[in-house]
Write a structure and sequence with these properties.
CATH topology of the largest domain: Beta Polymerase, domain 2
Number of strands: 9
Structural class: alpha+beta
Radius of gyration: 27 Å
Number of domains: 4
Length: about 400
């Protein structure tokens, strides 16, 4: 019998409080499920600890409150409550089966059957359960094999699972990026290709959430190449035509010791046009910060001559360290001649933006009235200060101002 009993989190006091509360209501009626079991078997970090239970939601809530746990109805219509123990959230979901689905949402009925619950999940490696003592259960009969082989395989018929929720197309590629090894499951890949148009039913926000997670995987190239082969990229990334630039950048990430950055990787894929960044951001409804960064990363470097490291101080000042590194990544990945990145990322990491010593108050004190000339003069002085390597003093800069007192 497979077990994860050695996992430290099984003995965590907050975890035990939740288990004890639910077991008091129905002994043997609760199991760990999904990512925490899968990652424990794969030897990967555990982020969220989710549980499945035979208890209906009302009984879960009553048992939790009786044990002094906070209860939040985060998805009660689908059987999910969030219990809080020692300031930590735990999702607890009643076993369920799908009654009706429309490719986005499901109407569910609650059940006490672990097998029914397993067969409505997406992938076999996500349909693994573990008792409170760590004993692992594999109702589909393929989850443990998939973990051993690092294969992402749909539960049952791939087409059926996808039609229940078309977002599972992107989840297939995202899970392959994080947990797969070798070529993707062929039946799953074919089904994703055949049903890709169903992604048009999925909200932009959900598509971007999955895309960002996919691009965050340490090695996402195989998954992206599989998306290309299935024809799925046209529904997610119509702004790019090849993953080749990302191949070069991920190689550079490893050399530089850089952690995966999904926005930088995205810029590498869709640059060099700022219009592409703007279109992608609007279509998938990126946040204001994400949109601003992506458009800046995809912009032109012609004003900053990033091929020449001697211009780095000025470029860092004008662009900021993040956009500076984003644009370097874009240029390097597209084979821009002469772009050397070694040492420049570490320089950006320690960069401290100098403070321009002249202020608007200084110009007002010299008699400059507010208006176009005022702004032009301030910008000209800043340009001179940057060109000096940030060396010119306030006094020296102000001495360059014309006399406006007469």
């Amino acid at each position: 019998m497979t077990s994860i009993a050695s996992e430290e989190w099984l003995r965590d006091p907050a975890v035990r409080r939740v288990i004890t509360a639910l077991e008091a209501q129905r002994p043997g009626g609760v199991r760990f499920v999904g990512g925490c079991v899968r990652n424990a078997l794969l030897g990967l970090p555990i982020s969220d600890i989710d549980l499945a239970t035979q208890l209906p939601p009302a009984d879960v809530a009553n048992a939790a409150r009786a044990a002094g746990l906070a209860v939040h109805e985060t998805g009660v219509e689908h059987g999910t409550l969030t219990l809080v123990a020692d300031h930590r959230p735990f999702e607890v979901t009643t076993l369920r089966r799908d009654v009706e689905t429309d490719g986005r949402r499901a109407t569910v009925a609650f059940t006490e059957d672990w097998i029914e619950d397993a067969y409505r999940r997406d992938f076999r490696m996500n349909a693994l359960y573990a008792d409170p003592d760590g004993t692992v259960f594999d109702p589909t009969g393929g989850g443990l094999e998939d973990v051993r082989n690092r294969r992402v395989v749909f539960v049952g018929t791939p087409e059926d699972r996808i039609r229940e929720d078309y977002l599972r197309i992107l989840r297939f590629f995202r899970f392959h990026a994080w947990y797969g090894d070798g070529a993707p499951d062929e039946a799953g890949l074919r089904a994703c290709g055949r049903l890709k148009e169903g992604l048009s039913r999925i909200s932009a926000e959900r598509i971007w959430m999955e895309t960002r997670k996919l691009l965050s995987a340490p090695s996402c190239l195989a998954a992206l190449e599989a998306m290309e082969a299935s024809g799925t990229t046209g529904w997610v990334f119509p702004e790019f035509h090849s993953v080749q630039p990302l191949t070069a950048w991920i190689h550079a990430e490893h050399l530089l010791g850089q952690s995966p950055d999904p926005l930088r990787r995205l810029a590498v894929l869709i640059a060099p046009s700022a219009d592409r960044g703007r279109t992608f951001s609007a279509r998938l409804r990126l946040s204001v910060r994400e949109r601003t960064r992506l458009e800046a990363a995809c912009g032109s470097d012609q004003d900053f001559r990033l091929a020449d490291p001697d211009g780095d101080p000025a470029a860092l000042y004008r662009l900021g360290a993040e956009t500076f590194c984003d644009r370097l990544a874009v240029l390097m990945s597209r084979g821009a001649g002469g772009v050397v990145i070694e040492g420049r990322f570490s320089k950006a990491a320690t960069w401290r933006r100098p403070v321009f010593p002249v202020t608007g108050e200084d110009l007002l004190g010299l008699g400059f009235p507010p208006g176009p000339v005022f702004g032009q003069t301030l910008r000209r002085l800043e340009d001179a200060w940057i060109a000096s390597g940030f060396e010119l003093s306030r006094k020296a800069l102000l001495s360059q101002c014309p006399d406006v007192s007469s």
